[in-house]
Amino acid sequence: MSLLVQVFKWDQRCRMLHRVDILLRRGVKKQAVYPTKLAEVGRLVEARDDRYETGQLFLHRIFGYRGVILFPWTARVYDRDLHNPGKISATTTASANPTQQNHTKEATLRVKANTSATPTAATAQSGDAPSSTAFEANAAESTGTTNVGTASQVDPKEVKGKVQTFYQVLIDTRDCPYIRAQTEAVTFLGNQDSNRSLYAIPGLDYVAHEDIMPYSSSEKSPLQHELFDKFLTHAPDADPPFVGQDTLKAWQEKNHPWLDMSDVHKETTENVRITVIPFYMGCRETPASSVYWWRYCIRLENLGELSVQLRERHWRIFSLSGTLETVRGRGVVGQEPILSPRLPAFQYSSHVSLQAPSGHMWGTFRLEREDGYSFDCKIPPFSLESKPDDLGTPTPATPSAHDKKRDDSD
């Protein structure tokens, strides 16, 4: 009897080994079909303190994609952290234990030390503007409500903008599927019968100067994007060796109002930095009213050592007409992204419309840290300002521009 039991066990082991062998062979076959390879795309060059020129190839320091600079923008950056240096480490609430508070403070100090350094090629790789608008204090007064979303130790009148350089760039389409950011960052109103028609130009982004890691390439077409050859031409004797064509200049001039970025807002809570860039898109007239549209691009970046996950959003939208709208919901754009030390950033765009030519928005993101600690991360308040609506109709230079559904709740 014992001999039969041993034979039975041996037969089971043989079957298990046979299954393992099949799995191994399948795994080897799968690796052979989809091999992982490293390919040289170019050589990093020394980072510059002054602005880069049109045609400069680069790697994005945060999202890692390949891109090329189309043209620079000058924007006013309102960084609330600069006016309250102790806020990042002091915002831990009473619900957090002393160990968590100490950990947050130490992590903040390390982040400050690291981010103050100028990135160099070896790591893989301006004056004051007018004061920020003081709409925070006025919002609660005009609506008769307590503006909890903008409570801060910083007097809004003291937040001044620093002039910094940003860039309009093309993204390599081969990298788009792997970017934790929407690659359709440029939207505008179409000249259609429907007053809710929005159009998007794929593969465009706005990049801050400090996120540029420049590199050079010997290829004549190092970037894959349908607009690359239409906008840029190879010029071996130039530096960088790609120069803008007349089509790029004409496209920039015609679409300037819908591409224009003027203000950037930043604020950090519990080592999570929120950056907001608002854009005015135009006004749609109807027999009953006028509807003004804006888009806003938001980046969440984890500067700490512990992963955090975005759980909820809470927006307040104030219109010059006197209305105050509150929007709550799970996640953003249908996602609840995790910001880890390995993948620290997430970026998305959304839209909002008002029946008044101006207004402002503020709010919070509810985040949950991997140790179970939850907190509200402040979204820096930003104004929604319209412009004269005699700018003509935008003319996209790509046939792949397509409808983008309105979503003003993210």
UniProtKB/TrEMBL annotation:
Coiled coil residues, start to end: none
PROSITE patterns assigned: APAG
Organism in which the protein naturally occurs: Drosophila sechellia
UniProt cross-references to Pfam families, sorted A to Z: DUF525
Classification via NCBIfam families: PRK05461.1 (NF003967)
Molecular function GO terms recorded: DNA binding
Ranges where the record places region Disordered: 383-410
Gene Ontology biological process terms from the UniProt entry: error-free translesion synthesis
Chain ranges of the ApaG domain: 266-391
Official protein name in the record: GM10809
Comp. bias (Basic and acidic residues): 401-410
One cellular-component annotation, GO: nucleus
